Amino acid sequence: MSTSGILLVLLTAALTMSANLLLRAGIDASGGFSFGGVPALVRGLIHLFMEPRFALGFIIYAAASVVWFRVVATEPLSVAYPILVSLTFGLVTTGAVLFFGEPLSLRKVIGLLTILGGIMIISAGASR
Question: The whole model's pTM is what?
Answer without folding.
Answer: 0.84
